[in-house]
Amino acid sequence: xxxxxxxxxxxxxxxxxxxxxxxxxxxxxxxxxxxxxxxxxxxxxxxxxxxxxxxxxxxxxxxxxxxxxxxxxxxxxxxxxxxxxxxxxxxxxxxxxxxxxxxxxxxxxxxxxxxxxxxxxxxxxxxxxxxxxxxxxxxxxxxxxxxxxxxxxxxxxxxxxxxxxxxxxxxxxxxxxxxxxxxxxxxxxxxxxxxxxxxxxxxxxxxxxxxxxxxxxxxxxxxxxxxxxxxxxxxxxxxxxxxxxxxxxxxxxxxxxxxxxxxxxxxxxxxxxxxxxxxxxxxxxxxxxxxxxxxxxxxxxxxxxxxxxxxxxxxxxxxxxxxxxxxxxxxxxxxxxxxxxxxxxxxxxxxxxxxxxxxxxxxxxxxxxxxxxxxxxxxxxxxxxxxxxxxxxxxxxxxxxxxxxxxxxxxxxxxxxxxxxxxxxxxxxxxxxxxxxxxxxxxxxxxxxxxxxxxxxxxxxxxxxxxxxxxxxxxxxxxxxxxxxxxxxxxxxxxxxxxxxxxxxxxxxxxxxxxxxxxxxxxxxxxxxxxxxxxxxxxxxxxxxxxxxxxxxxxxxxxxxxxxxxxxxxxxxxxxxxxxxxxxxxxxxxxxxxxxxxxxxxxxxxxxxxxxxxxxxxxxxxxxxxxxx
Length: 629
Hints:
The chain contains 20 helices and 16 strands.
């Protein structure tokens, strides 16, 4: 693999903009931040003043006592001076402790707001976004990137402000003590800044690469943990380790490059400060000899020389931390600013009642009668009862805008009909159901729901009217009852049990250790795949939707279990428009219409008997002359 030096890396794209936006989260706490700045100022001034007090302590109290025997009388002024210095240190310590506690509170509150905005943004992103980003990559935004931002808010900002106050106050104090020695310090600091700029600039471009490589490595780790059974089945442990070593190596190289110059910066600055200290001792000694300054002056100045270079060194270190935090913040804001799922719909789903004249009226009460509320351009409002009629008209769709997945698809599903899709893997069956949900937008054609173009219907209301049982079942951490109730959050316990009975899940649920209150964890890992899918079917049943989509809903259920739930599924599908995707053709024989898809087109359509008479692709599939793959 090529080393980092062969790649072109980018530093944070917009340092100023990202920093401004990050600090905007602190805008609501201006008064508290002003108090923090005041406390930092007091802490810095306390430290600087105590060093300045060394001059009168030596010149006025220590030097006059040289050669004299210590007595209570002549030692009392020194004791008072030392107590005064102790008071200054105490003020500095109390101020430092207080502002650190306050900043801890502020930083945690700010990070909480950033996490909330990031999580909210994820909920508004389209499915296509998650198709192109791994889970681990997204999780790294919540872990690594947020952590670097937290460190920036709780430590870096405070240390930067404190260092700036200390540098300014120390510089003023040094000017007062000796302008000649201060001039030397300025020359030395300019030299230090040049070195910092050279070394810091070399490391800044690698921080963004480091964060990116960390996200990729985390994503791969998450995938391998989830797929351990598959890895072991195919004996791919060695290949998995090799791939991880490759990704880990990339992370090591980018992290090494990012931190190399930052790591050598402190030792270089430390050694330079010792050289500076030695030069000042010689130069100051010379000035004392010629009577330009006093012993107390050089003593205070030597203390300031360390205080002056230390915050500058700290600032150089904080510079790297700032760049790392801004790189992380930029990645967070990239997610927050990602293009949201577009929804221009204005037709909404409302509870309805039908009066004695047969007219549909809107109501606040839940009546289990639903209607589409259509507000027209002229302000007129009309209502149309939700029936579940779905129509595709010359639909063309592509995921990437290049390869057509569906081509000129037209179909019609009347309320209460069962429509089945069969065909080879990749023929476009699942894509059709995803378009009904508006998980993706079509490029050409129209899809109508109860005669309304689905692009006019608000997505949340559209999806609320649909029930979906996916091939890949996902259960959440919680009780069995909670997972079924996910289909209808206000469902009563009686409704939950009734839905479980419809799906024929009630029997196995009652045999669980705590029945409906059994806790499920790890995506229901303590249940069989068939049991998990039964809960998914029960979740759809409790939602009681007028349109039901079954995407390989019984693929993980054995033949015996499938027969047991056929009656329950029939009860669930009764009176609903149902779209079924199935490899087992026995499950679609009683469909009102069967669509046979091939390469994104409907090549045959009709009911079971009609298609057998045609002796085409469906006939071949059903008789076993052609197998689904």
